[in-house]
Amino acid sequence: MEYISLLEELKNKIKISQNRAILSVNKELIFLYYEIGKIILKNQSQKGWGSKIIENLAEDLRKEFPNMKGLSLRNLRYMKLFAESYPAEIVQEALAQLTWYHNQTLLDKVSSNKREWYAKKAIENGWSRNVMVHQIESNLYERMLLEGKTHNFSQTLPDKNSGLAAETLKDPYIFDFLNLSESYLEKELEDSLVENITKFLLELGKGFAYVGRQYHLEVGGEDFYIDLLFYHLKLRSYIVIELKTGKFKPEYAGKMNFYLSAVDDLLKHKDDNKSIGIILCKDKNTTIAEYALRDNSKPIGVSEYKLSLPAELAKELPTVEQLTKLGKNIESFNRYDNQILEFLEKKETATTKEISEILNLSDRRVREILKNLQNKNLIKKIGKGPATCYTLK
């Protein structure tokens, strides 16, 4: 037993060291890319060199460092944009905690005034690149910071908690992972959210811990049931969530006030903060909701939820049917994207057959992936027929 304990301790030490080494290598790589971009910017600015200089540098650097990935023309252009977009050193430190693919995504998909915020959220929440893309496409920045939220936190919580509670609340919440009929019931909504609890927790945000559904409370000898009960680790508060399939009604605030009083009395530990209520409705009249909360002594937020992304974003994304037809599981698809791009950075050109062998996929599947990369303007096709090759743009 002592040997097993010793072995486990050493294994943990090695794993921690390996993780630190990976983080250290990534950090140095990001700093290197930033310095390369800064030097290119400086020389173009001071010496008036055009874009041709980047093409020459990409060619010569790959000759000098044939085994080093990431020196393609496309990547050098990203490095220049990277340095141009983030002049402040403090931002560079934060971005060095993200992978290069995360940083490329921020440059591609996010306007300059939002990039630092998304970067910090990605670090704070440990988002994968795909999760970060989803949060960007669901307008998380606007839902958490810009759009008007309905709550009474500033009147009912101490200053140290009211700001965090307000930041934690979103409006609207996006439940695009649910598959509900048009005339769904509250129970069906609750069932679907619990069945998809991992995605639901991701949408709620960092810090939410699931306690239970239809949580039983006995008050005055009678039984009451809370739709969903959570605990927020950072707020150190119970979070009571009530689901409504219609428009917000003032009486919902009174019922939530009752639940919060009961939770504070029956569940709250002496070290916990006041419990918080969130009423999720399909629709709300902001003025009516504000009146309902104005003189309420309990901290309550009222938010809408949507079962799909905003129309202007949804129309740009593939449908579930299209994804199923093409057989594109998002996680694996992006993994193959990255493998192909890395392969082309190293080899410069490759045929469909060569890429099929590397990925161990059928030629047909590879052609689908290559077509998508062409549509993204990341690669281009050279030649025709059997001599067709692909290279980075």
Automatic annotation (TrEMBL):
InterPro entries found in the cross-reference section: ArsR-like_HTH, PD-DEXK-like_domain, tRNA_endonuc-like_dom_sf, WH-like_DNA-bd_sf, WH_DNA-bd_sf, YhcG_C, YhcG_N
Domain YhcG N-terminal: 9-143
Residue runs in coiled coils: none
Signal peptide: none
Domain YhcG PDDEXK nuclease: 167-317
Pfam families: DUF1016_N, HTH_24, YhcG_C
GO MF, one example: nucleic acid binding
UniProt-recorded name of the protein: DUF1016 domain-containing protein
Species of the source: Cetobacterium somerae ATCC BAA-474
